[in-house]
Design brief:
Structural class: alpha/beta
Strand content: 5-15%
Shape: elongated
Largest sheet: 6 strands, parallel
Length: 265
């Protein structure tokens, strides 16, 4: 990941869907997001891309329809996949979390506004053991500007255990940025590291690892692969790996964590 163009400083903003009856006007939030994109397009509407699940999403949103009529380009999903995106600002309309990860994979947009995302508060009435967190990892990773709707709280520190953060930095500096965890040796080293962390009593949240990977400039798909691998290890699945790390790697991470400050992670 060291050789990736650093996109962590790209401007990002969001509005969140109402999570209760008190939020009066989501249309006003959309207006703020359009104005934000317009400012980052330097007043040129033709530079703005509108990312939607389907072109039919525009029919019930007069503001989006007007934006497109005035020059913005629509980029609909193709069977759930994000295709081409412009080099200018992108307004992602009600994106699913997996859509955000795909947008972060593209590496092209100069600014990203996510309109109508969800966070943990949207799922507070669920009784499942593990409630969905929505787009919170994206918010935690990039600290986007809040433009409307309820605030989605960013986690701080991003990863509560500094030893796990040091492990994530090691993974970042060792795996191939273009292939992520699809390369067998890279997957082995990450699997070995996570397995040893768990065996040594260090707990990690897969969604927090996703956020941390994005913060460290991982591509979206690689960050999602990390989350999925961490979830499998947390669930007790025995993952095979070749030994790629030094035997005392957890102790090394503990020493490095001991010299870190909370602001480092």
């Amino acid at each position: 990941m060291m050789f990736e163009e650093d996109r962590t400083s790209v401007p990002r903003a969001y509005t969140a869907l109402p999570d209760g009856p008190d939020h009066a006007d989501p249309a006003e939030d959309l207006k703020h997001a359009i104005e934000w994109c317009y400012s980052h397009a330097k007043g040129n509407l033709q530079r703005i891309g509108v990312q939607v699940g389907s072109k039919f999403d525009l029919r019930d949103e007069p503001l989006l329809e007007a934006l497109v009529r005035r020059g913005a380009t629509v980029y609909p999903d193709s069977r759930g996949k994000v295709g081409h995106l412009p080099a200018g600002p992108v307004l992602a309309f009600r994106p699913l979390p997996q859509t955000l990860w795909q947008i972060e994979e593209r590496r092209g947009p100069s600014a990203i506004a996510a309109v109508g995302i969800t966070g943990p508060s949207h799922f507070r009435d669920m009784f499942s053991a593990t409630k969905p967190v929505g787009a919170q990892p994206w918010v935690s990773a990039y600290n986007p500007k809040h433009l409307g709707g309820p605030v989605v709280e960013a986690k701080s520190p991003l990863i509560s255990d500094p030893v796990v953060w040091e492990a994530l930095k090691t993974f970042t500096n060792s795996i191939n940025s273009s292939t992520g965890l699809s390369h067998s040796s890279d997957r082995s080293s990450v699997t070995e590291g996570l397995t040893k962390l768990k065996a040594a009593g260090h707990h990690f949240c897969p969604d927090d690892l996703l956020a941390g990977a994005l913060r460290l400039n991982w591509r979206g798909s690689a960050a999602v692969e990390l989350r999925e691998l961490a979830a499998e290890i947390n669930d007790g699945k025995q993952k095979r790996y070749r030994k790629m790390l030094r035997p005392d790697i957890v102790e090394v991470w503990r020493v490095e964590a001991g010299t870190a400050t909370p602001s480092d992670y």
